[in-house]
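At this stage, I needed to go through a protein sequence along with its fold in token form, as given directly below:
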Amino acid sequence: MEMKKRVSLELRDRNPVEVVELVVNNCQSADGEVEGLTDEYTELEILSMVNVGLSSLSKLPSLPKLRKLEVSDNTISGGLDSLAEKCPNLTYLNLSGNKIKELSSVEVLVSPAGQVRLSGESLFVSAQDLVPALTVCPVWLLQQNLKNLKSLDLYSCEVSTLDDYRENVFELLPQLTFLDGYDQEDNEVPDSEADNDDDDEAGPHGDEDDDEDDDEDEDEEDGSEGDEEEVGLSYLMKEGIQDEEDDGDYVEEEEDEEDEEDGDVDAADVRGEKRKRDAEDEGDDDDDE
């Protein structure tokens, strides 16, 4: 899919000024330039253009609020002057997997008038006069305007294989905290930093996570209903067993009552038999007299 069409689809009936995050990964730039983006995206903070065939960032519009830019797996070899000029508030930049080969790749920070502005100075000289005498690398250009840049990724770029690569980049960019996911002491980016990045990337894709959470809630509800059914069945079975035990007690009670009645009858018979014998004995005594 062409980048311009993909950008239009990602708008989802919104106005560009309403877009805070835009992800157009794995589409295709027609000519290696940024397409479909305009200066109307004034509120854009996160932009991801991974594997879209970019070879230049020269047509990137002004994005004053952009904090995070993902342009990995493209063929960018320079043009960072446009990036520093149009996205001055970047804190995270991922250029991994691009064609940046060496720190000495000449990329002059050219003003609209075709002049080079030296950072912190009011001196302007012709680019033609300056280039033969000065080698300016793309990374050096980042230092000039990207004062807020804290994390830079250049892994899988050829430049990352150079000797003393990390030391040189940290020297050129003293504002950096992390390079390729590690600080100057080789400590990895803390989980809190990674979590913040994940939250940033949620955006429209965060809805999928919400759907998964909803599914989990439904599963829990279904599980609760199943537990209730099991409890109900167990309760009924327990009641049935209790009823049988109660019936058994009732039968035993009836048997005990019958035994007691039989005992009473036997005792009465014995008493009657005794009285009869006593009466007969008394009759014999009278006859003797």
Q: What stands out?
A: Confidence is low (pLDDT under 50) at residues 105-136, 201-210. The CA atoms of residues 270 and 276 lie 10 Å apart. The beta strands are 21-23, 46-48, 68-70, 92-94, 115-117, 124-126, 151-153, 178-179.
